[in-house]
Design a protein that fits this description.
The structure holds 2 protein chains of 2 kinds. By secondary structure, chain A is mainly alpha-helical. Chain A is built from 5 helices and 2 strands. Chain A has a single domain, classed as Orthogonal Bundle (434 Repressor (Amino-terminal Domain)), CATH 1.10.260.40. Chain B is built from 4 helices and no strands. Chain B is globular. The chains are: A mainly alpha, B mainly alpha.
């Protein structure tokens, strides 16, 4: 799954650790999501979307075949 | 601000985030299990066959009770992890359990077949716990690498 989490985080000038702290996960989890090695669960995706005041679809997009 | 999730690195000796206190909170009962198993199975039970059955049962089953308490503290610790680390740890625990069962079974069959001498039968409690820990470390390194 593609996402624009790195850009959104950058726009707020937050570090990965800052974002991790805000959504209650580890820095490694944020890094794994940003590098698209890990797809977050629905509750975590909702938390991230709520934090950036966006919908889930605006942050996470399915991979095009 | 949220509560910080538990991290596997907190119980990995030698790491920057290692915490002896957390390690003992999670793995303290494993040390009790190893010690009670080692003392009971190496020094007491083989040489005191005449002891009352109740005493021998307590000595034989004490490591099992400590192991169950260890499993409980590991599960509690895993519940405090974030979703990625919980997934990695679950995979590592399954890997460690399956690999340990495989080694125990294989060593048993090889001893029965006369390929290995009886001392290679890995059924002592403390050997089993060390196998689980070693395979957990190996499994954690393998599964953690995927997400780095």
């Amino acid at each position: 799954m593609k996402n624009c989490l790195r850009e959104l985080r950058g726009s707020k000038e937050w570090s990965q650790a800052d974002l991790a702290d805000k959504v209650g996960v580890s820095r490694q989890t944020i890094n794994a999501i940003e590098t698209e090695k890990y797809d977050p669960s629905l509750p975590l995706a909702f938390k991230v979307a709520k934090l950036f005041k966006l919908s889930i679809e605006e942050i996470f997009q399915p991979e095009e075949n | 601000m949220n509560i910080k999730p538990n991290l596997p690195e907190e119980i990995a000796p030698g790491g920057r985030q290692y915490s002896f206190r957390t390690d003992m909170k999670v793995n303290g009962w494993s040390w009790v299990a190893v010690l009670t198993s080692f003392v009971g199975e190496v020094f007491w039970l083989p040489y005191h066959r005449g002891w009352p059955v109740a005493a021998r049962m307590v000595i034989a089953l004490a490591p099992l009770l400590a192991s169950l308490l260890w499993v409980r503290s590991v599960l509690q610790w895993m519940r405090g992890m974030d979703e990625l680390h919980r997934r990695i740890t679950q995979a590592a625990v399954v890997f460690a359990t399956v690999a340990t069962l495989f080694i125990i079974t294989a060593s048993h069959f090889l001893v029965v077949a006369g390929v290995f001498p009886p001392r290679f039968q890995a059924t002592e409690g403390f050997v089993v716990i060390w196998l689980v820990v070693c395979f957990y470390i190996l499994g954690h390194n393998i599964f953690n690498r995927r997400y780095q």
